[in-house]
Amino acid sequence: MTEVSDRISRRQVDKFAERRSQLATSALQTLSQLGYARTSLREIAQNSEFSHGVLHYYFRDKVELIMYCVKQYKAECVKRYDQIVATAEEADQLKVDFGAALAVTCEEDATMHRLWYDLRNQSLFEESFREDALEIDKSLEQMIWRIVSTYADLAGREIAVTPATAYGLLDGLFQQALFRHLAGDATALATLRTATEQTLPKFLLT
Amino acid sequence: MTEVSDRISRRQVDKFAERRSQLATSALQTLSQLGYARTSLREIAQNSEFSHGVLHYYFRDKVELIMYCVKQYKAECVKRYDQIVATAEEADQLKVDFGAALAVTCEEDATMHRLWYDLRNQSLFEESFREDALEIDKSLEQMIWRIVSTYADLAGREIAVTPATAYGLLDGLFQQALFRHLAGDATALATLRTATEQTLPKFLLT
DNA sequence: TGTGTTTCTGGACAGTCGTCAAGAGTTTCT
DNA sequence: AGAAACTCTTGACGACTGTCCAGAAACACA
């Protein structure tokens, strides 16, 4: 029997890689529904069209599977917002678009972001999660910074905060909105929009 | 055999309540070390001076135990900051004291807050956790609002943000600092201090 | 002192978990 | 066609989980 690592390095794009991705998509679905603590490999397999044994054919262990899932999620996550930067022409419009995009994400991808916050938290307990969590966090920070930079350019003003601070503050708003939205608070999304629109200008020098 | 609820309602303050609290303290220690997903009742019992069977003598099930722990934690959590409000005499001093207090909390109670964020996240997956999580969250928001209100009073200016927004923003900063501190970032605490000092004035009207 | 009551122990229970491996089924290549 | 490699299923394993319970131990009260 060949090792998993052998199968991985065998070819770049083949059926093996495709199936890995396919299984990861299934796993991501289950994980976002149940959370890290309640998701078992058998549960993941049951929500796919395969048996539980096959997971160990494509992934060394549970940690590698979850890591692969998180990275696949990451690739999707950042994409959306760079489009707003690309099409922005006026500062106030960018501000409104960004707030609206956050609200849409919070509503449509609620379970995915719930999972992201869950896994980021697990990385504080499980050392093996930490590196990937920090990497994803960094890419989110950079995404936010592209928004803030573009906003400042369009407004013709200087930025008054660091990238980390801007990300920390906005992430706090988003997380709070996600909690309240999932808890059934109907005002959560509107509050997120207005709070974002009020906060963005405060990042700039007067 | 009497029911757990009978034992609870038997007397107000007695050995039974004391032992509950004592076991909860042990459990809180273990929970903050391992996190929700990796803590078992046997692990909790092993870190106490009792056997695992006694946990079901004092608590109906695991959920009731954890809930009792979280509420006990809550009682300790808010206390500290109200002292800053009480002793504040000047706006800039309050600003500095608050930032310093956040940094101290982030350092000294890192594992406890790591647990709090973990359990708050679990409440998004486990319905039975939600009510208590929202209640604790509310009390933290009010604590922050007392800080912001006092700060505005001392500065003689009006507040420009809602209680929810102020809490969301500051909680984002704190959570980010907690992550980076636990990940070994030596600058995390200093960054939290300065970011807090920069953010607080932005809550006020110019 | 003896008799209930409360407190605590340690083992048993049924279930779930991650992991593994033997072998069946499928595809690929000669 | 047969042989070899790859893919997947199934069942087993040891370890761990929350829960329960019989009975030992400690205590309170007569």
Q: Topology of this protein?
A:
The structure is a homodimer of 206-residue chains.
Chain A: H1 4-10, H2 15-34, H3 41-46, H4 55-58, H5 62-87, H6 91-108, H7 110-122, H8 127-155, H9 163-182, H10 188-202
Chain A binds a DNA duplex (30 and 30 nucleotides) through α2.
What does this 3D model show about the protein?
2 copies of one chain form a homodimer. Chain A is mainly alpha-helical and 206 residues long. Chain A is built from 10 helices and no strands. In chain A, helix 2 crosses helix 7, helix 5 packs parallel to helix 8 and helix 9 runs antiparallel to helix 10. The radius of gyration of chain A is 19 Å and the shape is elongated. At the A-B interface, helix 7, helix 8, helix 9 and helix 10 of A face helix 7, helix 8, helix 9 and helix 10 of B. Chain A binds a DNA duplex (30 and 30 nucleotides) through helix 2.
Give a short overview.
The structure is a homodimer of 206-residue chains. With 206 residues, the first copy, chain A, is mainly alpha-helical.
Primary descriptors:
homodimer; 206 residues; mainly alpha; DNA-binding
Biggest interface and residues each = A-B, 41 and 42 residues
Tally of DSSP β-strands of chain A = 0
The coarse silhouette of chain A is elongated
Uncertain segments of chain A: 8-13
Q: Please describe the biggest sheet of chain A, giving its number of strands, its sense, and whether it closes into a barrel.
A: none
Mean pLDDT of chain A: 92
Question: How large is the share of residues in beta strands of chain A?
Answer: under 5%
Q: How many helical elements of chain A? A: 10
Rg of Cα set of chain A: 19 Å
Question: How helix-rich are the residues of chain A, as a percent range?
Answer: over 70%
Pattern of helices and strands of chain A: HHHHHHHHHH
Structural class of chain A: mainly alpha
Oligomer: homodimer
